[in-house]
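User: Sequence in, structure out. Go.
Assistant: Echoing your sequence, followed by the structure tokens.
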Amino acid sequence: MEMMPRFFEPPKQSLFLFGPRGTGKSTLVKQRFPDAFYVDLLDPEAFRTFSANPSYLRERLSAEPGISTVVIDEIQRVPVLLDLVHSLIEEKKRLRFVLTGSSSRKLKRTGVDLLAGRALLCHLHPFMASELGIHFSLKDALTVGLLPIVWGSDNPGQVLGTYAALYLREEVQMEGLVRNVGNFSRFLEAASFSHGAQLNISNVARECQVERKVVEGYVGILEDLLLGYRLPVFSKRAKRAVATHPKFYLFDAGVYRSLRPKGPLDRPQEVEGAALEGLVCQHLRAWIDYGNTDSTLYYWRTRSGVEVDFVIYGSQGLRAIEVKNAVRIHPQDLRGLKAFREDYPEAEGCLLYRGKDRLVKEGILCLPCDRFLSSLRPPAWPE
């Protein structure tokens, strides 16, 4: 696999680097910190050693006084190490720790407060289109996603097909996060229908035939494993009644496609439309995180059903973005953006679509989606 540059720039101090499996955390830290003392907790021997004797880390570092950076990969596997890391940071002010993780669940359960601010919280996402450059293909991104572990494979479809099973086995079943793995598997399928839509937990519970509170717990597990997230509704200085339920997204368009059941009643354009919206969402989240901005991502929906897919709000401004999986723009496609700008005239609005031309319709900028994604480079916003 060709080594692709990543936009993520690690801070100078200690940090947590969270991201789902396969986003390239291990590859990135090995590339950025080639001289670091490296602990891989996915290695069975290292896992046994540090689980049995966390103080072994202090002993090893005491024997290597020249080390300035320590990388601990998949820190959530031995969360008790964080107490020792905290102590070492206090003792050795120049020692920097890079702690990667694909789950925050164990860290939360053990009451760890992320080292009380002594380590910054950072996130690594799937590839952005602009990281791939000329290698980016919108069609491929909508089919197999942009996970590095999938994108760099000789058989991306096969790797993607086993991705959910890997999580079920290694993260959910082995760690005992759920009592009934079969129920959780059905939940994953049902949750895929909520991708890009308002999350109605009661409906998902009926589909899975489990209690509502169980589904609430399952959603929490997905968020802790960084596989899914909820997007809140934008309600600042609202001039009309807005929705209260968040929207739900799986973190990668390819993972969504692999989980989404397909049958004769499923319209291909409906599935691909949700995939396109999710692809834009994952890019916007990465742009915010990598750009170190104070922006937050929302969506906007009124009680009457008028909606804008994404709203970015922060000191850099207010932006509203609508995504349409169509090659032509119809007047009704602009309805949500026009309504939003009536309520928030200071907002910049744009519509992303599958056509080829850059247009302005009724005062709203309309951009080809592939061109927009390819030009989205943190911290700048495409012009």
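User: And one key feature?
Assistant: The chain has a mean pLDDT of 90.
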